[in-house]
Amino acid sequence: MAHTTSHKLYKMKFLTLGNKALDKATIRETIRAYIIRELIHDTGYDLMDDEGIITGSLMDSFALAELGVFIEEEFDVYIPDPDLTVEKMDTLDLIVTRVMRDIN
């Protein structure tokens, strides 16, 4: 029983969108690259998974709206305006969790 539980914890979920195989790590790196390149405009910046993107003044609420559009276009996941908040989307971890929720 313990083996089955631990296997489930470490199992990588693979998703398909078009011809791309997506897993949580791929989604995370795709979003990280977009934020660094298009929203904070500093390709040398090392964005951490738990770093406050908005609370850390790396981007503002307008950029958050742009991120929502990118997520919808890239992953076919619609994030409604009430979910585009600092509380729900301030870190890469929170953003990826939100995207994974709708992909699964």
Task: Describe the protein.
With 104 residues, this protein is mainly alpha-helical. It contains five helices and two strands; from the N terminus they run αββαααα. The protein has helices spanning 2-10, 24-39, 61-75, 86-89, 92-103, and strands at residues 15-17, 20-22. It has a two-stranded antiparallel sheet with strand order 1-2. The protein is globular and about 30 Å long.
Structural features:
globular; mainly alpha; disordered N terminus; 6% strand; 54% helix; 104 residues
Summed up, what is this model?
The protein is 54% helix and 6% strand. By secondary structure, it is mainly alpha-helical.
Summarize the SSE layout with pairings.
Blueprint: H1 2-10, E1 15-17, E2 20-22, H2 24-39, H3 61-75, H4 86-89, H5 92-103
Antiparallel strand pairs: 1-2
**Major beta-sheet overview:** 2 strands, antiparallel
Specify Rg, calculated over alpha carbons: 15 Å
- Counting DSSP E segments of at least 2 residues, the number of strands comes to 2
- Strand coverage percent: 5-15%
Q: Numbering strands along the chain, what is their spatial order in the largest sheet?
A: 1-2
User: What is the CA–CA distance across the termini?
Assistant: 24 Å
Mean pLDDT: 83
Helix content: 40-55%
* Helical run tally: 5
Alpha-beta classification: mainly alpha
User: Can you tell me the residue ranges where pLDDT is under 50 for at least 5 consecutive residues?
Assistant: 1-16
Shape: globular
The H-and-E topology, N to C, reads as HEEHHHH
